[in-house]
Amino acid sequence: MNSLSAENRIPEPDLTERLLLRLSRGELAAMTPLYETVKDSVFGYALSVLKHKEDAEDVTHDCFVSVYRTASTYRPLGKPMAWIITIARNLCLMKIRERKKFAELPDEDWQTVFEDTRRRDPDDRIVLEACMKELADEEREILILHAVSGLKHREIAELLGIPLGTVLSKYRRTLAKMNGYLTKGTEEHE
Amino acid sequence: MNNTELENRVKDAYSGLAPDLLPDILADCEKQNGTVIPMRRTDDAAMEAAERKGDAAKETERNRDAAETAERKRVTAEASERKKSAGGFAWRRWLGGIAAALVLFVGGFAGLNGYRAANGVASRITLDVNPSIEITVNANEKVLAVTPLNPDAEKIVGTMDFKGSSLDVAVNALIGSLVRNGYLSEVKNSILVSVDAKNEADGKSLEERLMNEINAILADSNIEGAILGQTLSKNAEESTKQLAAEQNITPGKAALVHAIATKSDRYSEEELAALTIQELMLISGLSSTQESLTAFDSFQTTGQASSAAYIGRDAAIKAALANAGLAETAVYDLECELDWEYGRMVYEVSFDTAEYEYEYDIDATTGAVVKVDRERADGRGSGSATGNGTTQTNGANGLSGGVGAATGGNGGSASGSQTSGAVSGQTGSNVSGQTDSTAYIGRDAAKNAALAHAGFTASEVRDLDCEFEREAGRAVYEVDFEAGGYEYDYDVDALTGEVLRFGREAENDRDGD
Fewest CB within 10 A of the end CB: N or C in chain B? Predict the structure, then answer.
């Protein structure tokens, strides 16, 4: 497996925080580097919660606009990603609420994310499917928050309102589940 | 595949999936600075979704948007009449804020009456969560002022300017801001609404209306609110006013604190004044379904204060029993109550065995044992005892918090009597008549099972730890240890000693916090 290349690294908190501070001063120019740095974390999270590509795009869009608008309320305590993801999470909850009002769940179409991206490592598809289909909602949420969005377990516990111990043990078990599924999958393909 | 590799694969799988949304985002951000607030993108998306779903939905959506636009135009027009400079901008930011906080902004909420000047304060409303905000309105329920009463509240009110807007709209925006800033959520769901009105009947109906409204707003954000309402009487006792001034809290909160302190003399008013509304509601049992207490007749409640941020009674009981090395079946008179002590929320867990009476305070957030007390049931004072008994004495003295602190002292003597029952395959049968015996195999046997599976002896590993856990109806011992540069963790069936699950990761892979 490839080691993380520079672009793939989870964003450093310092950089993200500095960008937020620039935004809070009205420097819209900081939005572009912020978007590039953080978009995977936000979109990945929204997709894993909503399982619907367009809804996830909406939430991602609204999240960044909201970040821009409320950047001045961010307190620089070194947890910029947790702050951004909190906004994204609330938007997801609102989106889910909206769906209930329409009394109809959109068909899960998260698989369509693969249609318009460049040639991808087939392993990615297998891993994505494993996450979306094999894990319980909260397990997937915790996994994505940590592995994709880079939140610490403690931040996840606070965000979801569950004890840290629960996050740690669920995370452990989720990795074990994924491991089991991916290993088994490999065997079946051989 | 180790954990880091797996995490990387997950991260790779989710990267680069989003189309380029940046141009639209930048465009919307620019508009925030401009003079016109356009339809927000989610409204566009909602309309398109409605079109795909059919004409009826389309119709509803159009009407709703029209009402929203009309209301927005009317409010903006009123705003620009009154405001000269930066105030105008504040209005637009506020409108953006409402749209962000509410899923569907129904036009009917806002006061549709024309603006009429009436500057006398007819009612004073305070909202307490931990931020405290005061709203004064005139006889037409138009807002005269919104005042943040503490630093957290300043963040909530921000630059929003409500002068002249209707009370409903202001409350909407403030609740939305509380939610957005994380002071209200599914687990932090409690809010106190206090109304002080010139006319007491008006006050009561206002209180009821506000409670219902706030409930509805929170429900829109998927939050089941616990709302406490009260109408402050004109003759609010002097002591309440004094308490409010001394502790720097609102009269509304002071009234609640006073009511709790009067009912139970375990807490001082000073201690209580520092708690959040949610904590106050939880320890006073105000929001439980039990019969209400006379001291609280002046309060109305809807909803239940969430204790979901806490580990829950079951987990607290589990923690206490594990520390004592006892199974639930081996004790009686088991009680568990949420309480406030040592500056934090704790579960008080107490239970008895034939020999001892136990009392534990378990940290409600972390599950750590904060305090433990054990007395001989016959009052003679603790003496030495076999097996777990001896361990417990050591554990109790040296306790510094953390579940399972007592396990280090487990002597070999316990395993003899404990293993005899269970390993032969009995399930669920209790060996009655003995103080500490259970149908479970005991920690030592669990550790041995894990070690044997991993191929180590106890002396070859470090940090050997074993915790009893019950989840989903199954009892397990969780055994952890370090050896050969790896961290091992095992789940061992507490009745049969079977290894249910195990894991191993390289030590330097562990994620710290």
Answer: C
A159 neighbors A151 (Cβ within 8 angstroms): yes
Interface of A with B in 43-62 (CB under 8 A): 43-44, 47-48, 54, 56-58, 60-62
CA B212 to chain centre: 22
**Residue showing tokens 């990267």:** B15
Minimal CA separation from B57 to chain A, in Å: 8
What integer pLDDT is reported at residue B458 of this predicted model?
A: 85
What is the spatial distance between Cα B142 and Cα B120, in angstroms, rounded to a whole number? 10
So what's the pLDDT on residue B193? Answer: 93
**Does the CB of A186 have a partner CB in chain B at under 8 Å?**
no
> Which residues does B163 contact at the CB level (< 8 Å), separation at least 6?
B82, B143, B144, B145
For residue range A3-18, what is the model confidence (pLDDT) as tens digits? 444 444 555 668 899 9
Of B26, B57, B104, the CB nearest to A28: B26
Q: Which tokens sit at B258?
A: 């006073």
ipTM at complex level: 0.87
- Whether the pTM exceeds 0.90: the reply is no
Place of tokens 């319980």: A136
Cα–Cα distance between B351 and B328 in angstroms, integer? 9
**Range with top average pLDDT, A33-42, B153-162, B395-404, B461-470:** A33-42
Indicate the residue of B14, B53, B513 with minimum beta-carbon distance to A152: B513
The alpha carbon of residue B13 is apart from the nearest alpha carbon of chain A, in Å, by 4
What average pLDDT does the segment A44-70 reach? 93
pLDDT-based confidence at residue B89 (cuts at 50, 70, 90) = very low
- What digits encode the pLDDT tens for the residues B117-146? 356 888 899 999 989 999 999 888 899 999
Q: Crossing angle for the helix pair B3-13 and A122-129, nearest 10 degrees?
A: 100
User: Cβ B57–A183 below 8 Å, yes or no?
Assistant: no
- Contact of A134 with chain B, judged by CB distance below 8 Å, is answered with no
What pLDDT, on a 0 to 100 scale, did the predictor assign at position A87?
92
Largest alpha-carbon pair distance within chain A? 56
B215, containing H or E segment: helix B200-220
Tokens of B145: 């002022």
The predicted model gives A99-123 an average pLDDT of: 68
Helix (H, G, I), strand (E, B) or coil at B92: helix
SS3 (DSSP) at A14? helix
A94 contacts A100 by C-beta, under 8 angstroms: no
For B84, phi then psi, to 5°, come to -100, -55
Write b or e for each residue in A112-126: b if 16 or more Cβ atoms lie within 10 A of its Cβ, otherwise e. Answer: ebeeeeeebeeebeb
